[in-house]
Amino acid sequence: MASMMFTDCSSSTTSRLFHLNRRNGTSLLRQCVGQLRFQTTASGRGCIRSSSSPISAISVILVGDRKDSATYVRNKKKACDSVGIKSFEVCVAEDSSEEEVLRSVSGFNDDPSVHGILVQLPLPSHMDEQNILNAVSIEKDVDGFHPLNIGRLAMRGREPLFVPCTPKGCIELLHRYNIGIKGKRAVVIGRSNIVGMPAALLLQREDATVTIIHSRTKNPEEITREADIIISAVGQANMVRGSWIKPGAVIIDVGINPVEDSSAARGYRLVGDICYEEASKVASAITPVPGGVGPMTIAMLLSNTLKSAKRIHNFQ
Amino acid sequence: MASMMFTDCSSSTTSRLFHLNRRNGTSLLRQCVGQLRFQTTASGRGCIRSSSSPISAISVILVGDRKDSATYVRNKKKACDSVGIKSFEVCVAEDSSEEEVLRSVSGFNDDPSVHGILVQLPLPSHMDEQNILNAVSIEKDVDGFHPLNIGRLAMRGREPLFVPCTPKGCIELLHRYNIGIKGKRAVVIGRSNIVGMPAALLLQREDATVTIIHSRTKNPEEITREADIIISAVGQANMVRGSWIKPGAVIIDVGINPVEDSSAARGYRLVGDICYEEASKVASAITPVPGGVGPMTIAMLLSNTLKSAKRIHNFQ
């Protein structure tokens, strides 16, 4: 049985984003966003005020009327409010032109009161996602998706201005729980630009020996069983079974997959890529789904925005 | 015994850069630079003329008077001459300022007759290598070291303008000898910005399952033994022994390490990271040192310069 579980103990991710319990009842709670709030509102630090005139601000560009995108944007806005980061939102109609979105990006690039720019994905199919993401100033790319940031992340001796939020949150979880990375065998399942690839680069920067597993890997079970640390971001419900896990491994499950559940109010429930019931009997630590990595993504977005504001205001 | 060996059969890498022999004597020779020369000088293609007015040109900036750097630059110049690529060379004194080097870079960036810019490394310690490499226009970065190129290399769905020459040469060797990469287990030993890291990214783009081994890896022998393809670029003479190799594996040895040898005219000889004598008895294919990967690096530099000239001249 996993001796440590990363659990969201709150129904409101904006009030208590992150919690850890041990089975023995000893709480090792360190609330990431709570800490961030302390850091950002403490008058002695003075870098951000939770007042009506915050000096850190993020702009979100939402194109179209997808309900899921609107929900994500609303959650980000709530989280910003909770730590005193001002958020602007620009809604662009589904049938707008790419140029209109680019104009919004350009306006925020030029606006010195904006420290972070988020373009909510996915974009309508008639728009070129690359063009639009590339247009975001690298100094305000709080999502960390700009290829220049990814290049710096990949290179030894270089530092990205921002690290993509979800993989940054995964590593932060390991740090917060004092789980050593250096010299460990790590397996990342999935090689997306948003999670898998940057997570592998981050693990390698911390001196893990990393293998990335993907759809063309012939023996994923065997390779995963060698890992001390597993980060899965593949989007397949319960793909990783207990038999794939080395006893004592640490598991970070990024997958959020809906599965039918007639007993649930909405007719479905959310599960991860890892079969939690089986894996938690073998692993030493595991994140639940939902409530594990998800809240960390938003926390890291706030952290990136804070970092950007501090850089722009030349605040150490 | 390796059934296939990548062997340089010529003492002059500028005349015959690359050769393959099978032990059974069947030559599968395909001279990479020979092919490139054909491709670039064939009047029907017309993209480069091996005349006095070539339309492809590379500029090399050599700072200081290191003998090894001067030799590398001379070899590159010879290779350019052999395929009709014009090469300019700017020599900057060892005690010059960083600004002087940056001025040279800037001049070549602005010169439409220059399609590739090379800054020969290493630079004197009083210069910031990052600053200078970052100043090279990404459209003329034929070394492929710009973080924007590396970022695009790392990202799915993005294309780098240029791929670093040595790892590109490693992959080209595998392609030329019809060695499949997709679905194979690959181990890259070493994680340098110049070879190991981009080699791993390239293997992954070709759907290998890649593990990078480095100085903090606890059991490199065991992990290497799982590999179908090994690329080593760690700079330690004969580090990888025969016992590390899975029977039938394919080995690309990028290391070039001098070891004392009183029987050699210069008192030393060059060996790779792989113990060739042992590994060649287990592997199915192996590159020798010298004469394996080295000539490919120069060939890929020419290939990158050709690609740049074609892009700038809008030649398909």
From TrEMBL, chains A, B:
The gene is LOC104737714. Pathway: One-carbon metabolism; tetrahydrofolate interconversion. It comes from Camelina sativa. Residues 164-311 form the Tetrahydrofolate dehydrogenase/cyclohydrolase NAD(P)-binding domain. Residues 56-143 form the Tetrahydrofolate dehydrogenase/cyclohydrolase catalytic domain. This is Bifunctional protein FolD 4, chloroplastic isoform X2. Keywords: Hydrolase, Multifunctional enzyme, NADP, One-carbon metabolism, Oxidoreductase. It comes from the Eukaryota. It holds the Pfam family THF_DHG_CYH_C.
